[in-house]
Please model this.
Amino acid sequence: MCGRTACTLAPDEVSRACSYRSRGGQRREPRWREGDADKYRPSYNKSPQSMSPVLLSHRHFDKTAPVDECVLASMRWGLVPAWFKENDPSKMQYSTNNCRSENILEKKTYKDPLIKGQRCVILADGFYEWRRQEKDKQPFFIYFPQTKGTSEEKTEDDPMTSTRNKENSETACPPELASPDSTQGGEPGEWTGWKLLTMAGLFDCWTPPGGGEPLYTYSVITVNASKNLESIHDRMPAVLDGEEEVRRWLDFGDVKSLDALKLLQSKNSLTFHPVSSLVNNSRNNSPECLQPVDLNSKKEPKPTASSKMMMSWLKSSAPSKRKDPDTGESPEEKEIKAEAQSKSAGGLQQWLQGANKKPRTK
Model:
């Protein structure tokens, strides 16, 4: 299943991170649907009912749009079917946060959107999953391995970041897992930051029976867990690995529903690390939610290659003047507060609390 995610990029960064090539070979950055960039709030701990960035075909909103044109939209997590008759969507009697791939054609809630071609891609830095243990549950953060080009931006003025990137460049993921943006090299507009996780989903548009603004919502499609994740949980999101799979999933004109469903496979393309139980409470929204922890020691763990890349990206990507979406505080203001609250924190935790790692806003 998938019940919690993180998406820390600012709206403009999300657009850059999911750029794609048109049929003519030109790289494009999808624009946000009018007004939707303001509805999205970056978060280290995003739960159902929150607004998330979703990529979909522009033709869902404009029938005259080019067949290969994509657009970004903010949608609420938890699909509300168009036929729902209540005035309050919170009155739904069952959860639609996740949709099992094997049941899509059996349930009207999901079959209707699928037949209508309402396929989308949910974007996130990664997702959290909990492994059951004897007395409690251990959370893990799961994400795409980061490529060689990741986190190499904004390093000229930061010798520490430059050193980290030099180390990370020797531990890049295999070429077959690399993001197209990270392997082309030299093209204007190329994204070399965090490679977003691309999860297959279905969306629907619900309008209150008494009238009002339409509500766009989505469900994350899940499949059986891959071999490397099944020790954590028996389900995982249906991951679309690579630009071509994303294109085919979104192309509801040329790629029919039954053919699109064939893309929903378990894939051993993700990496993970254990994190603190701090993430268990969805109200906790800080970099500590992503911090790797050592399950066998209370000491600060030595970061793995993938987690080092994640930390390097969080360190190097966020302009220092951005404010936290939840508190409205600037990084400098939150830094002062964090220092007072965490004098006993280890070196890595203090680094994560630095001014350059607050959730990004516009």
Notes: The longest strand covers residues 197-206. The CA atoms of residues 344 and 350 lie 9 Å apart. The longest helix spans residues 305-317. Confidence is low (pLDDT under 50) at residues 151-186, 319-328, 330-358.
